[in-house]
Specification:
The protein has 331 residues and is an alpha/beta fold. The protein is built from ten helices and 13 strands. The chain has three domains: 114 residues, D-Maltodextrin-Binding Protein, domain 2 (3-Layer(aba) Sandwich); 90 residues, D-Maltodextrin-Binding Protein, domain 2, CATH 3.40.190; 91 residues, Double Stranded RNA Binding Domain, CATH 3.30.160.40. Bound molecules: the ligand NCc1[nH]cc(CCC(=O)O)c1CC(=O)O. The site of the ligand NCc1[nH]cc(CCC(=O)O)c1CC(=O)O has 10 residues, from strand 8 and helix 6.
Length: 331
């Protein structure tokens, strides 16, 4: 019997095509099924308005979800950080594959890194999270920088630096890596991966989410082959923190859960993963106030344990005044 091809709904951007292509290959390999890509245009792809004005990155997700719910496609791949924290009742995240580099990178004029940003540097980012942390970094180094809201795809953003309109832009490392053209795209520009001690990424950054109808049990089971349990509990803790801080998708919240290893870690001695650390930050976009905390616990072995880790850190951050920093509505 020949099974019908699985239809994977995707946006047409270079990044979305790369992400969908990657997952399509993995699904073909693991299931032996044929996978065809179905292009879907979203409002976020056609609007020139700033994302915060059109309601955040959720706009990218909505059209793909509509296509899933209408039965036009069987599954879809999202950047996890673009997904609202509330799960859609009829859909399920059937797989969260192993995460890529979660960091942000600074793509800057030749020779310029975060450490050597000049006073008055113009840095392109419309993300309140990036603005808050970059401005805080600059302040602590006695500098003033100007953050300039930009949007558009990765090529467009890098273009501002190539054309000399900006000194630097901030992008997700994962996006840059996935479109493959780090060299080709950035040319003589300097690509500086930002230490997560300076800039915590967005919750879920670098991870993908593979979504389908919750009722499609066979497909849910097949896609589960792509799931990485560590990535899933890490991003669950990060997104729980985001939700518990009652932050919208364009809120100035950074979070990263990573595994802490124990043991000598050299020669033939294996390192053993012992704990998971969850770090979180929230701040004002001018960087004058940041609440940055971390908590460490046993590696969660279930969804509920990951949620508990996120809640614990959220409670600590709220006790330190995090809520007061969330009201700001910044571009
Ligand atoms: N904000 C849009 C967006 N959503 C996902 C990525 C990159 C891929 C990822 O973070 O997983 C990007 C681009 C960026 O922030 O530079």
């Amino acid at each position: 019997m020949t099974e019908k091809a699985l239809r994977l709904g995707t946006r047409r951007s270079k990044l979305a095509m790369a992400q969908s292509g990657h997952v399509a290959d993995a699904v073909r390999q693991l299931t032996g099924r044929t996978v065809e890509l179905v292009e879907i245009t979203t409002y976020g792809d056609t609007s020139r308005e700033h994302l915060a004005q059109i309601g955040g990155t959720g706009v990218f997700v909505a059209a793909l979800r509509d296509a899933l719910l209408a039965g036009e496609v069987d599954f879809a791949v999202h950047s996890l950080k673009d997904l609202p924290t509330a799960q859609h009742p009829e859909l399920t995240l059937a797989a969260i594959p192993k995460r890529e580099d979660p960091r942000d990178v600074l793509v800057a004029r030749e020779g310029v890194t975060l450490d050597t940003l000049p006073d008055g540097a113009r840095v392109g980012t419309g993300s309140p999270r990036r603005m808050a942390q970059l401005n805080a970094y600059a302040r602590s180094h006695g500098l003033t920088i100007e953050t300039v809201p930009i949007r558009g795809n990765i090529d467009t953003r890098v273009g501002y630096v190539r054309k000399g309109e900006l000194d630097a832009v901030v992008l997700a490392a994962a996006g840059l890596n996935r479109i493959g053209g780090t060299e080709e795209l950035t040319g003589s520009l300097t690509v500086d991966p930002l230490s997560v001690d300076a800039v915590l990424p967005a919750p879920g950054q670098g991870a993908l989410a593979v979504e389908c109808l919750a009722s499609n049990a066979d497909l849910v089971a097949a896609l589960a082959e792509l799931d990485d349990p560590y990535t899933r509990v890490a991003v669950t803790a990060e997104r729980t923190l985001l939700a518990a801080l009652e932050a919208g998708c364009s809120a100035p919240v950074g979070a990263l859960a990573d595994l802490l290893a124990d043991g000598p870690g050299h020669g033939s001695h294996e390192q053993t993963v012992t704990e998971m650390r969850l770090r979180g930050v929230v701040g004002t976009t001018d960087g004058s106030t940041l609440v940055q905390l971390s908590t460490t616990g046993p590696v969660p072995t279930s969804h509920d344990e990951a949620v508990a880790l996120g809640r614990e850190l959220a409670d600590e951050m709220l006790a330190k005044g995090a809520a007061g920093l969330m009201g700001e509505r910044a571009l």
